[in-house]
Protein backbone atom coordinates (compact mmCIF):
# COMPACT_ATOMS: atom_id res chain seq x y z
CA UNK A 1 0.00 0.00 0.00
CA UNK A 2 2.76 2.44 0.94
CA UNK A 3 4.59 1.57 -2.28
CA UNK A 4 1.48 2.38 -4.34
CA UNK A 5 1.04 5.73 -2.58
CA UNK A 6 4.71 6.57 -3.21
CA UNK A 7 4.39 5.71 -6.90
CA UNK A 8 1.23 7.84 -7.27
CA UNK A 9 2.95 10.73 -5.48
CA UNK A 10 5.97 10.54 -7.79
CA UNK A 11 3.69 10.43 -10.82
CA UNK A 12 1.79 13.50 -9.59
CA UNK A 13 5.05 15.40 -9.00
CA UNK A 14 6.26 14.44 -12.48
CA UNK A 15 3.02 15.71 -14.05
CA UNK A 16 3.30 19.01 -12.15
CA UNK A 17 6.92 19.43 -13.23
CA UNK A 18 5.98 18.65 -16.84
CA UNK A 19 3.16 21.23 -16.75
CA UNK A 20 5.61 23.80 -15.35
CA UNK A 21 8.07 23.03 -18.15
CA UNK A 22 5.34 23.53 -20.79
CA UNK A 23 4.28 26.86 -19.27
CA UNK A 24 7.90 27.95 -19.02
CA UNK A 25 8.46 27.02 -22.66
CA UNK A 26 5.51 29.22 -23.62
CA UNK A 27 6.51 32.30 -21.61
CA UNK A 28 10.30 32.16 -21.95
CA UNK A 29 11.97 34.43 -24.47
CA UNK A 30 14.46 31.64 -25.00
CA UNK A 31 17.10 34.29 -24.35
CA UNK A 32 19.69 33.39 -21.78
CA UNK A 33 20.85 36.39 -19.77
CA UNK A 34 24.28 37.24 -18.48
CA UNK A 35 24.66 36.70 -14.74
CA UNK A 36 26.32 40.12 -14.35
CA UNK A 37 25.04 42.44 -17.11
CA UNK A 38 25.39 45.54 -14.91
CA UNK A 39 29.00 45.22 -13.84
CA UNK A 40 30.48 48.54 -12.74
CA UNK A 41 27.12 50.08 -11.82
CA UNK A 42 26.38 50.92 -8.20
CA UNK A 43 23.12 49.72 -6.69
CA UNK A 44 20.82 47.19 -8.29
CA UNK A 45 18.27 47.17 -11.12
CA UNK A 46 16.15 44.63 -9.21
CA UNK A 47 13.30 44.82 -6.74
CA UNK A 48 15.27 42.13 -4.90
CA UNK A 49 18.63 40.71 -5.95
CA UNK A 50 17.70 37.16 -4.94
CA UNK A 51 15.70 34.72 -7.00
CA UNK A 52 12.56 34.08 -4.94
CA UNK A 53 9.91 31.36 -5.38
CA UNK A 54 6.89 32.96 -6.97
CA UNK A 55 3.75 32.32 -8.99
CA UNK A 56 3.26 33.71 -12.50
CA UNK A 57 -0.30 34.24 -13.77
CA UNK A 58 -0.78 34.30 -17.53
CA UNK A 59 -3.52 35.98 -19.54
CA UNK A 60 -4.44 32.50 -20.78
CA UNK A 61 -5.39 31.45 -17.25
CA UNK A 62 -2.38 29.18 -16.81
CA UNK A 63 -0.29 29.53 -13.65
CA UNK A 64 3.46 28.89 -13.44
CA UNK A 65 3.90 28.03 -9.73
CA UNK A 66 6.95 28.02 -7.47
CA UNK A 67 9.26 29.45 -10.12
CA UNK A 68 12.55 31.03 -9.08
CA UNK A 69 12.08 34.59 -10.32
CA UNK A 70 13.13 38.17 -9.73
CA UNK A 71 11.88 41.46 -11.10
CA UNK A 72 14.21 43.73 -13.06
CA UNK A 73 12.65 47.09 -12.18
CA UNK A 74 14.92 48.94 -14.62
CA UNK A 75 13.90 46.86 -17.65
CA UNK A 76 10.37 46.06 -16.38
CA UNK A 77 11.25 42.44 -16.99
CA UNK A 78 10.82 39.15 -15.11
CA UNK A 79 13.86 36.89 -14.95
CA UNK A 80 13.63 33.16 -14.33
CA UNK A 81 16.36 30.80 -13.09
CA UNK A 82 16.37 27.20 -14.26
CA UNK A 83 19.25 24.87 -13.37
CA UNK A 84 21.65 27.74 -12.82
CA UNK A 85 20.74 29.55 -16.04
CA UNK A 86 18.84 32.84 -16.17
CA UNK A 87 16.19 33.58 -18.79
CA UNK A 88 13.89 36.51 -19.54
CA UNK A 89 10.15 35.92 -19.77
CA UNK A 90 7.62 37.26 -22.27
CA UNK A 91 5.88 40.12 -20.49
CA UNK A 92 3.01 40.39 -22.96
CA UNK A 93 1.78 36.92 -21.94
CA UNK A 94 1.92 37.65 -18.20
CA UNK A 95 -0.92 39.28 -16.24
CA UNK A 96 0.69 39.30 -12.80
CA UNK A 97 3.21 37.58 -10.57
CA UNK A 98 3.47 37.13 -6.82
CA UNK A 99 6.56 36.67 -4.68
CA UNK A 100 7.19 36.14 -0.98
CA UNK A 101 9.31 39.13 -0.01
CA UNK A 102 11.10 39.12 3.33
CA UNK A 103 11.67 42.36 5.25
CA UNK A 104 13.39 41.81 8.56
CA UNK A 105 11.55 39.06 10.42
CA UNK A 106 8.36 39.46 8.36
CA UNK A 107 7.49 37.88 5.03
CA UNK A 108 4.75 39.36 2.86
CA UNK A 109 3.31 38.30 -0.46
CA UNK A 110 3.95 41.08 -2.95
CA UNK A 111 1.60 41.24 -5.94
CA UNK A 112 2.88 42.78 -9.18
CA UNK A 113 0.20 43.38 -11.82
CA UNK A 114 -0.04 45.20 -15.12
CA UNK A 115 -2.99 46.45 -17.13
CA UNK A 116 -3.62 49.62 -15.15
CA UNK A 117 -4.37 52.59 -17.34
CA UNK A 118 -4.94 56.27 -16.75
CA UNK A 119 -2.97 59.46 -16.49
CA UNK A 120 0.73 58.73 -15.76
CA UNK A 121 0.16 54.96 -15.83
CA UNK A 122 1.50 52.50 -18.40
CA UNK A 123 -0.62 49.36 -18.98
CA UNK A 124 2.54 47.37 -19.79
CA UNK A 125 4.27 48.24 -16.50
CA UNK A 126 4.05 45.94 -13.50
CA UNK A 127 2.73 47.80 -10.44
CA UNK A 128 2.70 46.62 -6.83
CA UNK A 129 -0.90 46.19 -5.67
CA UNK A 130 -1.11 47.23 -2.01
CA UNK A 131 -4.87 47.33 -1.63
CA UNK A 132 -8.02 46.61 -3.62
CA UNK A 133 -11.41 47.91 -2.50
CA UNK A 134 -13.60 50.90 -3.28
CA UNK A 135 -10.26 52.59 -3.90
CA UNK A 136 -7.20 50.72 -5.12
CA UNK A 137 -3.66 51.60 -4.01
CA UNK A 138 -0.82 50.73 -6.36
CA UNK A 139 2.88 51.52 -6.32
CA UNK A 140 5.18 52.19 -9.22
CA UNK A 141 8.57 50.79 -8.20
CA UNK A 142 11.37 51.40 -10.67
CA UNK A 143 15.13 51.64 -10.72
CA UNK A 144 16.44 54.67 -12.61
CA UNK A 145 19.90 54.65 -14.18
CA UNK A 146 22.00 57.73 -13.40
CA UNK A 147 25.47 58.76 -14.43
CA UNK A 148 27.15 61.50 -12.43
CA UNK A 149 30.58 63.09 -12.35
CA UNK A 150 32.44 62.51 -9.09
CA UNK A 151 35.63 64.34 -8.16
CA UNK A 152 38.77 62.20 -8.27
CA UNK A 153 42.50 62.76 -8.07
CA UNK A 154 43.59 64.82 -11.12
CA UNK A 155 40.22 64.56 -12.92
CA UNK A 156 36.56 63.79 -12.47
CA UNK A 157 35.29 60.28 -13.06
CA UNK A 158 31.84 59.07 -14.09
CA UNK A 159 29.82 57.23 -11.47
CA UNK A 160 27.07 54.97 -12.77
CA UNK A 161 24.35 53.87 -10.40
CA UNK A 162 20.76 52.72 -10.04
CA UNK A 163 18.47 54.87 -7.91
CA UNK A 164 15.10 53.50 -6.71
CA UNK A 165 12.02 55.55 -7.54
CA UNK A 166 8.67 55.00 -5.81
CA UNK A 167 5.35 56.61 -6.76
CA UNK A 168 1.93 55.86 -5.27
CA UNK A 169 -1.43 56.06 -7.07
CA UNK A 170 -5.03 55.81 -5.90
CA UNK A 171 -7.58 54.50 -8.39
CA UNK A 172 -11.22 55.39 -7.71
CA UNK A 173 -14.32 53.37 -8.61
CA UNK A 174 -14.78 55.44 -11.78
CA UNK A 175 -11.22 54.39 -12.82
CA UNK A 176 -9.88 57.93 -12.37
CA UNK A 177 -6.29 57.96 -11.15
CA UNK A 178 -4.71 60.30 -8.62
CA UNK A 179 -1.03 60.30 -7.70
CA UNK A 180 -0.45 60.86 -3.99
CA UNK A 181 2.70 62.31 -2.51
CA UNK A 182 3.07 60.52 0.82
CA UNK A 183 1.55 63.32 2.87
CA UNK A 184 -1.66 63.52 4.90
CA UNK A 185 -3.08 66.36 2.83
CA UNK A 186 -2.41 64.58 -0.45
CA UNK A 187 -4.14 61.38 0.69
CA UNK A 188 -7.09 63.16 2.32
CA UNK A 189 -7.64 65.41 -0.69
CA UNK A 190 -8.12 62.30 -2.79
CA UNK A 191 -10.30 60.37 -0.35
CA UNK A 192 -12.47 63.32 0.59
CA UNK A 193 -12.45 64.59 -3.00
CA UNK A 194 -11.60 68.08 -1.77
CA UNK A 195 -9.24 70.38 -3.63
CA UNK A 196 -6.47 72.36 -1.98
CA UNK A 197 -8.54 75.52 -2.40
CA UNK A 198 -11.53 74.54 -0.26
CA UNK A 199 -11.79 74.87 3.48
CA UNK A 200 -11.03 71.69 5.39
CA UNK A 201 -14.51 71.39 6.91
CA UNK A 202 -15.73 68.22 5.20
CA UNK A 203 -17.02 65.68 7.76
CA UNK A 204 -15.34 62.75 6.09
CA UNK A 205 -12.05 64.58 5.98
CA UNK A 206 -12.22 65.44 9.67
CA UNK A 207 -12.97 61.83 10.62
CA UNK A 208 -10.13 60.45 8.50
CA UNK A 209 -7.76 63.07 9.87
CA UNK A 210 -8.76 62.10 13.41
CA UNK A 211 -8.05 58.43 12.66
CA UNK A 212 -4.60 59.27 11.33
CA UNK A 213 -3.83 61.18 14.51
CA UNK A 214 -5.28 58.63 16.93
CA UNK A 215 -3.66 55.62 15.26
CA UNK A 216 -0.37 57.39 14.57
CA UNK A 217 -0.59 56.56 10.86
CA UNK A 218 2.29 57.69 8.67
CA UNK A 219 1.17 58.56 5.16
CA UNK A 220 4.69 57.93 3.90
CA UNK A 221 4.15 54.21 4.55
CA UNK A 222 1.94 52.20 2.17
CA UNK A 223 0.88 49.83 4.99
CA UNK A 224 -0.50 52.77 6.99
CA UNK A 225 -2.28 54.13 3.93
CA UNK A 226 -3.85 50.68 3.54
CA UNK A 227 -5.21 50.90 7.11
CA UNK A 228 -6.79 54.23 6.26
CA UNK A 229 -8.32 52.80 3.07
CA UNK A 230 -9.74 49.83 4.98
CA UNK A 231 -11.41 52.23 7.43
CA UNK A 232 -12.68 54.32 4.50
CA UNK A 233 -14.25 51.29 2.79
CA UNK A 234 -15.89 50.07 6.00
CA UNK A 235 -17.46 53.42 6.88
CA UNK A 236 -18.28 55.27 3.63
Strand content: 35-45%
Distance between the termini: 58 Å
Strand element count: 11
Largest sheet: 11 strands, antiparallel
Structural class: alpha+beta
For the record, the count of structural domains works out to 2
The Cα radius of gyration reads: 22 Å
Strand order of the largest sheet: 1-5-4-3-2-6-7-8-9-10-11
Share of helical residues: 25-40%
Low-confidence stretches: 1-23
How many individual helices?
Answer: 4
Mean pLDDT: 80
Give the helices and strands as they follow along the chain.
Answer: HEEEEEEEEEEEHHH
Multimeric state of these chains?
A: single chain
Anisotropy-based shape: globular
Descriptive overview:
26% of the residues lie in helices and 38% in strands. The chain is of the alpha+beta class and 236 residues long. It has two domains: 2-180, no CATH class; 181-236, no CATH class. It has an eleven-stranded antiparallel sheet. Strand 6 and strand 7 (106-113) form a beta hairpin. Helix 2 packs antiparallel against helix 3 (203-215). Mean pLDDT is 80; it is low at 1-23.
Amino acid sequence: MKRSVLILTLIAISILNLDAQYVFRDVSEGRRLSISPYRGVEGTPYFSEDFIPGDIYLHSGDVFSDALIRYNAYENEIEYMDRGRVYSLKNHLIREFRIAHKQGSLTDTVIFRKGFSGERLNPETFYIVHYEGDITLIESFSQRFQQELAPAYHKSSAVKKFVPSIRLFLIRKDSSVEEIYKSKNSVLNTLADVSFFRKFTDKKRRELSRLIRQEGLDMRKPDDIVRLLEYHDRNY
